[in-house]
Design a protein that fits this description.
Elements: E1 23-24, E2 35-38, E3 40-44, E4 66-70, E5 77-80, E6 92-93
Parallel strand pairs: 1-6
Antiparallel strand pairs: 2-5, 3-4
């Protein structure tokens, strides 16, 4: 947008951004069962988020978040296996 304030309603997403043409989402983290925790508990997120300056990260649907809780002091992690994908033609990955 024509503003330095991302909360004034004039900002727009990066353009051109066309799904499966120049950007590809490899793992959305919307489905917690796609993830496996090691030293971490993986659960369905129960909160929404609406954070100023991070509009691309906002989520209005509580079930579309995945929550990771570390169960091993400083050593827990979670991973999701994605299918093999040729990413050479994309400008943006998420």
């Amino acid at each position: 947008g024509n503003s330095t304030d991302p909360t004034d309603g004039t900002w727009e997403a990066w353009k051109p951004a066309i799904a499966s043409i120049n950007y590809l989402s490899l793992q959305s983290a919307n489905t917690h069962t796609d993830w496996t925790g090691t030293g971490a508990t993986v659960a369905d997120g129960t909160v929404t988020r609406n954070v100023d300056q991070f509009e691309d990260e906002d989520e209005a649907t509580a079930g579309n978040t995945t929550k990771f809780v570390n169960t091993a002091q400083g050593a827990g992690y979670a991973e999701a296996t994605i299918t093999s994908t040729d990413i050479s033609a994309y400008d943006y990955l998420t």
